[in-house]
Structure formats: C-alpha cells, structure tokens
Amino acid sequence: MKLYADPITVNCRKVLAGFDLLGVPFEMVKVDYFQGEQKSPAYMAINPNAALPALVDGDLQLWESNAILQYVADKVGAEAYYPKDLKVRADINRWLLWESNGWFPSTYVYLVENVVKPLLKAEPDQAVLDAEKPRFDKLASILEARLAKQPWLCGDKCTIADIVMASPMHLHSYQKLPLAPYAAIRRWYGQMEALPGWKKHDVAPLLGLA
User: Does residue 146 share a domain with residue 44?
Assistant: First the structure.
C-alpha cells in the first residue's frame, strides 16, 4: 500500500498515527502541502479533491482519512482497534462521522487563527474565535459527557475513534483550544499523548513550534 501524505497536516497525522497503532506496513509518498503538490495533475488523478492524504492499494484509490483507517483496519485484521461487533462498530463509525462533520471544522478555526496565521505572519481574528466558541463548547460538552463515563471514547480500550477524534486537537496548546472546563477531555488527551505512535508523529517541531 502507498500512502500519499504530508505529515504536517491534521488528516495525514491522523492516518500515520493510526497506521502505527494498527501495525500497518506501507510505503510513504511525500506530497508537499505547502508547495501545493496536492494540486498537481498526477496527484489529482488519485484524489480529485486535491486534498491529503490518499491511499493506493492495487487498483483501489481511496481518499478520506477516516475511510482509509476503516479500510486498513479491516485489511490487516486489527479487530482490537476496529471491532467487528455490530454495536461497537456503529459507535466508532458514529464518532468518525461526527469528527468530520463537526469536531474537525470547529477545532480547525482555532488552528487557522492561532497557528497558521501566525506562521504566515498574520494576526489572528479574535472576532472569528469569539464567534466559534459557542459551537466549540457545544461539541466539547458532548465529547466530555462521553469521556466522563469511560477511559476511551468507545469503551475501555483505544480504537481508531480515539485517533480520529484526537487528531484535530493535535496542536491544542498552540491552537489555544478552550479546554479548561473539560477535565475528561484533558485526561483522555493525556492518554493519547502517551501513545508511542502518537508522539512519533508530533508535527510541532516540523512547523517550528517546538
């Protein structure tokens, strides 16, 4: 399998950390995000969305980071991290969809304003951050309620749902995510940071943040 990715992006880090967790053998093909290589005709023949990452496995060309993790978990038989029990899998899939539709877009506002803009020598827009905070608090409260009941998102063990949900927060201290009221989220994310595969793909040094 070939993974086309740039480790600095949220969704690429998600897949790379997920592959480490699952023990997936793959070949990495670097696509430089800041150079716009994801917009090249050669790459867009694989992913017409011009977005990263993408996976090529024989005649399968697969985009969407969450779909990549689902596919690969099944391919390598990583049932510990993506169980086949129907209800557990439905719960995991629910969080994967929730991340892409709500959690990622909200946390991304903080990433753009507090990380990307400063890297580009631009000032964060406080009005944008203030406008986003009610949505963030609504979503964080939902996540907090789940994590207050159990150590991991979908039970007592880490699954691909935890990798997916943690990824948009991967620069949380630089993003300045307003996590102070959410003790369960902070406890859970501390567990994520202790995973060897998670630490291995820390992008802060790549961005000159650490």
Answer: no
The reply to whether 92 and 194 lie within a common domain is: yes
- pTM of structure: 0.95
Give me the tens of pLDDT residue by residue for the chain, a chain 210 residues long.
999 999 999 999 999 999 999 999 999 999 999 899 999 999 999 999 999 999 999 999 999 999 999 999 999 999 999 999 999 999 999 999 999 999 999 999 999 999 999 999 999 999 999 999 999 999 999 999 999 999 999 999 999 999 999 999 999 999 999 999 999 999 999 999 999 888 888 888 888 886
Structure tokens at 19: 């592959």
Q: Which two tokens stand for residue 171?
A: 């620069």
Q: Which domain holds residue 131?
A: 86-199
DSSP string, 193-205: HTSHHHHHT--TT
- CATH number of residue 137's parent domain: 1.20.1050.10
